[in-house]
Amino acid sequence: MIGYVTLGTNDLERAAKFYDALAEELETPRMMEFDTFIAWGKPDGPAGVAATKPYDGKTATAGNGTMVALQAKDKAQVDRLYKIALANGGTDEGPPGPRGDEGFYAAYFRDPDGNKLNAFTMTA
């Protein structure tokens, strides 16, 4: 089981604004916070997400082929998360809609550091 996913950032304040907005929609508070690291999640809840400056002090880069999927409760929340992401410095990677079969509804976007995320719900 995945406990949490950590994504690198070069600007923690900017990342915090982006992830605070998504977390508010998902009703998921900040769980931990340090000078170089912020995590959103619920103790003993589903997997959380963290934004961190790299420990080695080097520049954070987005992984090619790496993506974090945020589970939404329904299609309307997928739509809202996509809009929230774009309104908070995210970029479009694919608007909300069905993917593959009709049982998977998702939207794709990148955070301000280029990390790829998706908001999805299973509809079947």
UniProtKB/TrEMBL annotation:
PROSITE patterns: VOC. InterPro entries: Glyas_Bleomycin-R_OHBP_Dase, Glyas_Fos-R_dOase_dom, VOC_core. Pfam families: Glyoxalase. Residues 1-122 form the VOC domain. PANTHER family: BLL2941 PROTEIN, GLYOXALASE FAMILY PROTEIN (AFU_ORTHOLOGUE AFUA_5G14830). This is VOC family protein.
